[in-house]
Amino acid sequence: MKRLLIFLFIIINIGCQKNNESYIKHLNGYWEIEKVLLPSGEEHVYNYNEFIDYFNVSDSLKGFRKKLKPALNGTFEGSNDSEEFVIKIEQDSLNIYYQTNFSNWKETILFANEKELKIINADRNIYIYKSYKPINLN
Domain of life, per the record (predicted)? Predict the structure, then answer.
């Protein structure tokens, strides 16, 4: 009986572990901030976003993030500025390490699928993104 309980405990623990590596394939693309949850419990909801975030990740887990402004004709306006990053799988976390000419910082991907992305930063702010859908005026 004792062995059976130990075996069941191990199986349950393995089944409950997150597969953070699977989040990487969902990061590529256009993301719109839906809300930010602050450590205090306060919530900032974004009903309208002038800018969206574009993530591009290569097979080498290097990539960049860029702020873009959607135009009504389906194109995007942007600058040449971008934030380069490296993704690292560390212990039970999937971390993004950014580097620009001005700063370095880390964010952790808490969840990602084709519709939602959750990222936490060093200030413990949780950014919840939704997949960007262009405005269709037709």
Answer: Bacteria
CB 63 within 8 A of CB 85: yes
Q: How many CB atoms lie within 10 A of CB 115?
A: 10
Q: What is the dihedral of CA 37, 39, 40, 43, to 10 degrees?
A: 0
CATH architecture of 19-131: Beta Barrel (2.40)
* Boundaries of every domain in the chain: 19-131
pTM exceeding the 0.85 threshold for the entire prediction: no
Distance CA 127, CA 138 (A): 31
